[in-house]
Structure formats: C-alpha cells, structure tokens
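Posting this for the archive.
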Amino acid sequence: MEKISILIVEDDPIIAADLQDRLEEMGYHPLGPVARGEEVPAFFENPVLPDLVIMDVHLEGEWDGIETTRRIQEKHDLPIIFLTSNSDDATFNAAKQVKPQAFLSKPFRGRDLKHAIELAISQSAAKQASIADPAADDNAFLFKDRLFIKAKDRLVRLFFKDILWVEADDYYCKVVTLEREYLVTQTLKKFNEELAGVPELMRVHRSFIVNLAHVEAIGELNLQIGKTKIQVSRNMRDELLNRLKNI
C-alpha cells in the first residue's frame, strides 16, 4: 500500500468530515476521525502505524491535543500537525512544548493543508536522520522502516521491504518496486549514505542498491531479482554473500 495514512483527531464533525474529503482528494488515506484523545491509543495497537497525525489542540474529554500528543510521543516518533482555531500566544506556547512538526489554523485552505503535511514529514525525517538542512531540495524522506517520495504533487509511502532495487540515473536515482518506479532527486551515493542503517538494502555496484530479501540468484558478476539481472562489483561479491546469510 503506497497511500500515506493520516489519523484525524478532531472533535468538530464538520471539520473532521472536511479533512477526510480533502485528504482523499489529495490521494492520502484518512483514518478516524477520533473526537477524544483517550481513543487515540487504539490506533497504535495495529501492526502498521499511522504515518502522520492531524491533531486538534482543543479536544473534548480528559486529554486535550497537547496531552494526547505527549502520550503518543512516549512510545512513537511520528509527524504531528496541530490544528487550532485559537492562535493566541498562550495556546501556541503550550502547544510548542511537545514540538509538533507543523501548525495549521482554522479555517484552512487545501494548499495550506498540503504544505503542512509535506513540511511535517520532511521535518520529522530530518529529525530522525539528524539532517542539518530539512529544506534541502530532495523529494525523498527516510524514516526507520519506510520512505516517503514526492510524486505528482503528493507524497507516497514505500516500506523498505517493498523496494526491489535502486538504480543510478545521472544525478538522480530510480527506486523500483513490483508495481512501479519512482525518481528520487538525489545521487545514488547520497541516497546510499542515508540508507546506511537499513540492513536489507546494500550497494552492490556503483550504479545499484539492491534489497537482499528479493535476491533470487547470484552469478559471478551479477545477481537476479525477478527477471532482471543486476551488476555486482567483483569486490562486493564476498560481502554480498555474507550479508545474505544474515537476512
């Protein structure tokens, strides 16, 4: 599934329904909506977590949006967008203590929502990767187990396990999955450096990174994924065989 899932935590049913419609139009997968902060933890018991949360600061119930965010952050590190109709200094200062990735004021425009989502994901990815410049002109954002790529004016999600291989394409690189290909605005060298902590992905040639879990056969100077043969540098073959033993 490549649609980014976004949990809506909003106690106003009209605003919640509007958010659902807008997110669906943008190609995202809305979850909820949830009106009370106490109901949010149930969404984090599933094997696949939401990719992002849009959180109303003022919620009905015992937990407001700030307290609900604190509870999420105790166990999970994911982007949070605060939604508020009250933009006074007291609200802002209280909200910023839990360090959301973006703020969105009601009423909001579709363009504001789109930008807030992209900003939240890029800021959170930069934080997790300790990147100094989250505003760099890249269209790929890496998290612990997944990758977000900006494609055709929206962000799509790829889990690392679904990547077959990554191929150098001049100053860009091409990420190949079973269903389609995505162009990333980074060199393969830079992309490989950011993927250094992902054990199943390995650079086997100056032009290729492969997902070891999808390797079906290994020759003297190539390997096979599906029907595609991919070059392997001679000096990488031994490391490739050793890494495969641990997959």
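The longest strand covers residues 163-169. The chain has two domains: 5-129, 160-245.
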